[in-house]
Design goal:
The complex is a heterodimer of chains A (114) and B (882). Chain A has a three-stranded antiparallel sheet with strand order 1-3-2. The termini of chain A are far apart. Chain A contains four helices and three strands. In chain A, helix 1 (14-25) packs across helix 4 (85-113). Chain A is α+β, with helices and mostly antiparallel strands and 114 residues long. Chain B is 53% helix and 16% strand. In chain B, the strands form three sheets. Chain B has a six-stranded mixed barrel with strand order 3-4-9-6-8-7. Classes of the chains: A alpha+beta (114), B alpha+beta (882).
């Protein structure tokens, strides 16, 4: 059977949010980004590394990211992805809306527990 | 980033994407090697964890494309290649769809011509028609003309209507010039502001001006473009010249543009409408002959106008209960009014529904064909999916094929519909209003054809596409090229499609047969009189020369006497209306019966005749006597009634000597004695009803408009020239409205019923043929699939009759189940048609079993071929054919 190569989203936009957040700390190249997301999400998200790329292309197109040449940890020339101003603004909006959502869910769960 | 830049930078993005991915993998491999893996191991594990590189690159690229325009083009190209590879399939599918689309586009040209009428003028959504609502009329009760007093009362409502014009349509006048034969023209008298309501002015000359509706200033004419072209050779110098209309001189002041036309209204010229003092009095309220057109005041909605008009109608009811009781008023937008008034909507809707069903049948056929083909392509689709094509991608590919087929079908269908529309237009000549409307392949038809082509594409390919894309790749790839029996789920789906289309076809067949039979019965009903060898001529005596009744009676007597001299003429009679042509219905009262409330009186058809009438039309006397020469203006008023009258109003008692009062327009009600009873005639040749009828003696109350009937011993049309000559000798300016034999007259009144039947018959045959093709395809394919199985059966000793019976059973089962479903859904049809078509009696229970048997017979014949082929299968060939 063909494996579904798509990243199974937790909720719509979760992957993009994680990419934005990760890159907001430090510009990175693709492999480092994949490693980083895997580590921080504690392997909670079973993602195929490749599925990052369509998401990165989408964000490049929207203008949240730009790419420029840089050096990797192994001193190879690689494309580094960097947040733009628009990307930073979008990240802030997303975080606050996600926080609201989680706050809402927690309240409902708390009620349900009573 | 604009799209042009994007187009150029796209390749750069593609490269960067591939680069990034390569860098990612390199980095990872190095990383893994650092952790102690061999180069090979590292590469394998890096690729595994990354996923399908090609697919991801593809996804990443798609982001930079416009909604995957390129992949659509690629799909179309692929679809074209695929279709070219199987020309038989393509031809069958395209032709089937083309037939369905052609017949739809052809019928839609009628919708475009009659139901999306061309409206004259500017800002047409603010033009409305204000009509009276006739409580007793069966035909278009809400488009009844209004009386002059109501027009005057309503048009003063300036806060609802910015302008309101009155239009006395359907007048007949004689247009003559010295030395020329008089011509009868239909014309309209309109209030001077009539053209302003539409916002249209004459293309040459001027409109009527206010004040030109005063007697003495009203002898003006505006010509229609058609009459100007035909009679005056498009000569612009006609403006300012005078022409003779009804023996009086009129000044031509304008010529309307050719685009000024309204469905069902086609006067040849317009004159100003003059309202006399008598027209303004309450007494004129029964004289309802004005169509009212108005322009809504700024900001006033249709709903507001309706509310206002119903208030005004109620006011009139209260003030004049005797004449206005139960009468209402309606406001419709101009387009709505014209369509309603023309009353062609239900006929067209039924035909349109039928053709849409035929399209569904065609789509079911094509869908079944595609399913058949999908079985053969299972492997190809499985390979595509295993290489990473998602299900949506496969569905899209198959839908694209469907769309390509539908577009070819649509183009071919549109071509065919060109001829269909030509044929239709050739048949649409049964009355001048229909003939006047241009039926053509216009932009509406084009858009419709495009829309139904796309609909057909989706309908015919969505099931096969979903079905094909859902198949299990592993099974498809592993299975042998040909199994012993075919894939069950595909077969079931195809059987459902073919069964469904059989049901639909049977439903349509029953529907069309019911309609054809009802129309046939109407067209061949006994009208109650002898309509062969009967020539009729319509005449209108004008006020100018024949003002008083003595003059009218004289000229009629003179005409009858002279026409009787023509050789070959047996009897000449005059009647105010032709038999079976829907004469006036008037209120009557029988002496000794209680008075009815206003507008609820008994009614009877009223016809004025000369004594020869009954012998001329061959109507038998039942009782009493005929009119005689002494039943004239000086004698006591006498009437003859029909049997239906005696039955309905006198409970079959002896009517001779009874007194009845007739409430005719423009004459004081007076008591008349019944002197005779004659047989019944159908009120309308095109309806089955027989109404109570009263015949008055023409010489007791001569009218201006009447018909002459001549019974001849020779072919009636051969005496036409002599009739013209005799009438011209009596009065050369007297126009002949029409001269036509009674059979032609009835043909005209049937108003296209024969055409309607012919069209329905074509639909029925098409539905039957498509269903037969569907059943044939189903069985033929199934035989092809099961060749091996059949071979085994024969090898094991099955007789050929067993085999063909098996195949027959299979096909007939689908046809029978489909037919039964179709029969069930067709059960309420007579009731439905009865309510759609006024006066059509739709009851023919026998049609159901006959059509069912016919359908099964056709299915049986369609299965014969494949069944025989199955029986001839050579087991040696079939089994070796692996």
């Amino acid at each position: 059977m063909v494996k579904k190569p798509e990243f199974r989203d937790l909720f719509p936009g979760a992957l993009e949010l994680m990419i934005l957040k990760t890159l907001s700390r430090k510009p990175m190249h693709g492999y480092a980004l994949a490693q980083r997301i895997k580590e921080t999400s504690d392997d909670l998200l079973q993602i195929e590394e490749g599925s990052l790329y369509p998401a990165l292309q989408r964000m490049l197109k929207t203008g949240w990211l730009i790419s420029e040449m840089g050096l990797s940890a192994k001193n190879r020339p690689v494309r580094i992805f960097k947040l733009t101003q628009a990307g930073r603004k979008h990240l802030e909006q997303e975080i606050s809306s996600v926080e609201q959502m989680f706050a809402g869910i927690s309240r409902v769960l708390a009620l349900a527990r009573q | 980033m604009n799209w042009l830049q994007q187009l150029f930078s796209r390749r750069r993005h593609y490269n960067e994407l591939s680069e990034s991915i390569r860098e990612h993998l390199d980095e990872k491999i190095t990383d893994l090697q650092d952790r102690g893996m061999s180069r090979e191991q590292a590469e394998r594990s890096a690729r595994r964890e990354f996923g399908n590189v090609t697919l991801i690159e593809q996804r990443g690229r798609e982001i930079w494309q416009w909604p995957s325009l390129e992949s659509i083009i690629a799909d179309v190209r692929f679809a074209l290649r695929q279709l070219l590879k199987s020309p038989m399939f393509t031809a069958a599918a395209v032709t089937t769809l083309a037939l369905g689309i052609a017949i739809n586009a052809t019928m839609f040209s009628l919708v475009s011509a009659f139901l999306i009428p061309h409206l004259p003028g500017e800002d047409t959504e603010h033009i409305v028609a204000v009509s009276s609502v006739n409580p007793d009329s069966q035909f278009q009760p809400e488009a009844y003309p209004s009386s002059a007093p109501n027009y005057l009362a309503w048009s003063s409502n300036t806060h609802v209507f910015a302008l309101m014009a009155a239009d006395n349509e359907f007048l007949t006048g004689s247009l003559s010039e010295p030395g020329q034969q008089a011509e009868a023209v239909s014309y309209a008298a309109v209030s001077p502001n009539f053209f302003s309501v539409f916002g249209v002015s004459p293309s040459i000359g001027r409109s009527f001006r206010s004040g030109e509706d005063r007697p003495g200033q009203d002898h003006l004419i505006i010509l229609s473009h058609g009459l100007w072209e035909r009679r005056y050779g498009s000569d612009p110098s006609i403006i300012g010249r005078s022409v003779r209309l009804n023996r009086e001189d009129y000044l031509v002041v304008g010529i309307m543009p050719a685009t000024f036309r309204m469905l069902g209204f086609m006067p040849k010229l317009w004159t100003p409408l003059t309202l006399s003092a008598a027209d303004r009095m309450a007494g004129a309220r029964t004289n309802r002959n004005l169509f009212l057109f108005a322009r809504l005041a700024p900001g006033v909605t249709l709903q507001q106008a309706r509310t206002q008009m119903s208030t005004l109608a109620q006011l009139a009811q209260k003030d004049f209960p005797a004449v206005e009781q139960r009468w209402g008023a309606s406001v419709r937008t101009l387009g709505d009014f014209l369509i309603y008034n023309f009353s062609i909507r239900s006929g067209i809707s039924v035909m349109m529904t039928v053709v849409v069903f035929i399209l569904f049948i065609a789509c079911a056929n094509v869908a079944a064909l595609m399913l058949t083909r999908a079985v053969g392509r299972q492997k190809e689709l499985a390979i595509r999916q295993s290489l990473g094509a998602s299900r949506a991608r496969v569905v899209r590919q198959l839908l694209t094929e469907g769309i390509v087929i539908a577009i070819f079908g649509g183009a071919l269908g549109l071509g065919l519909s060109y001829f269909g529309i030509q044929a239709l237009r050739a048949g649409l000549t049964f009355n001048e209003y229909i003939a006047d409307v241009p039926v053509r392949l216009d932009s509406n038809v084009l858009f419709f054809a495009l829309a139904i082509s796309l609909l057909a594409a989706v309908l015919s390919s969505v099931i096969p596409a979903l079905k094909a894309s859902r198949s299990d790749i592993n099974v498809s790839l592993k299975s042998e090229t040909r199994g012993a029996s075919s894939d069950r789920s595909h077969n079931r789906m195809r059987a459902v499609l073919v069964g469904g289309e059989t049901a639909l076809a049977l439903f349509l067949l029953i529907g069309t047969c019911l309609l054809i039979r009802s129309v046939y019965l109407l067209d061949h009903q006994e009208l109650g009189f002898a309509h062969d060898h009967l020539l009729t001529a319509g005449l209108v005596l004008d006020q100018a020369r024949y003002a008083d009744s003595v003059k009218k009676a004289q000229v009629v007597h003179q005409a009858v006497t002279q026409l009787e001299q023509i050789s070959g003429v047996q009897t000449v009679a005059v009647a105010s209306d032709l038999p079976a042509s829907g004469a006036n219905s008037i209120p009557i009262h029988i002496k000794g019966q209680p008075e009815a409330r206003p507008n609820e009186e008994n009614r009877a058809i009223d016809v004025l005749i000369t004594p020869n009438y009954f012998s001329a039309i061959g109507l038998p006397f039942r009782r009493g006597r005929n009119f005689t020469a002494s039943d004239d203006a000086s004698g006591p008023r006498v009437v003859i009634v029909n049997q239906q009258f005696v039955h309905q109003y006198l409970q079959d008692s002896d009517p001779i000597g009874k007194q009845i009062k007739l409430d005719t327009d423009g004459a004081a009600p007076s008591w008349s004695q019944i002197v005779g009873v004659v047989g019944d005639i159908k009120t309308y040749s095109e309806l089955p009803t027989v109404d109570p009828e009263v015949y008055e003696s023409f010489s007791q109350r001569p009218v201006a408009s009447f018909s002459i009937l001549l019974r001849s011993s020779v072919e009636p049309n051969t005496i036409t020239p002599s009739v013209r000559q005799v009438l011209a000798e009596i009065d050369s300016e007297l126009p002949l409205l029409r001269i036509m034999n009674m059979d032609q007259m009835i043909e005209v009144q049937r108003n296209g019923n024969p055409l309607f039947s012919r069209i329905l018959a074509i639909f029925a045959i098409l539905a039957l043929v498509l269903a037969a093709i569907g059943i044939y395809g189903l069985v033929a394919y199934s035989v092809g699939q099961r060749t091996q199985e059949i071979g085994i059966r024969i090898a094991l000793g099955a007789r050929t009759s067993d085999i063909s019976n098996m195949i027959l059973r299979e096909g007939l089962k689908v046809a029978a189940i489909g037919s039964c479903i179709g029969l069930l859904i067709a059960l309420p049809l007579p009731k439905v048609f009865g309510s759609i078509f006024q006066g059509l009696i739709v009851s023919a229970p026998l049609i159901y079993p006959i059509v069912l048997v016919a359908m099964l017979l056709v299915a049986f014949i369609a299965i014969q071929g494949p069944a025989r082929r199955a029986a001839r299968v050579d087991p040696n060939v079939a089994l070796r054919n692996e």
